[in-house]
Amino acid sequence: MTFEKVCKLADIPDEGVIGVEVGETPVALVRRGEEVYALHDVCSHAEVKLSEGEVYDGTLECWLHGSCFDLRSGKPTGPPAIKPVPVYRVKIDGDDVLVSLSKES
């Protein structure tokens, strides 16, 4: 499994989200304390950037229609989305955040 450095841990606000590119794949990085989650940065309902949404209660909410996605599984927790978004593996190496595009299982 190949991991790619995408940013510094300090680049992601606590309880916040940023968008990055891994190759040509858009990825939303969410930080909750020392945990970082990586989800595909495209809403499965409206195809807009999830990284422009809000983080709360272990979910990332799409800014356009309010669909919420579980940070661990990518599964929708509220309508209108019904399809999950892919989630990716994250490693923290010192101050660096690394992401593998291999999907979590």
UniProtKB/TrEMBL annotation:
Residues 4-99 form the Rieske domain. Coiled coil: none annotated. Keywords: 2Fe-2S, Iron, Iron-sulfur, Metal-binding. CDD domains: Rieske_RO_ferredoxin. It holds the Pfam family Rieske. The keyword Disulfide bond does not apply. Gene3D superfamilies: Rieske [2Fe-2S] iron-sulphur domain. This is Non-heme iron oxygenase ferredoxin subunit. It comes from Streptosporangium amethystogenes subsp. fukuiense.
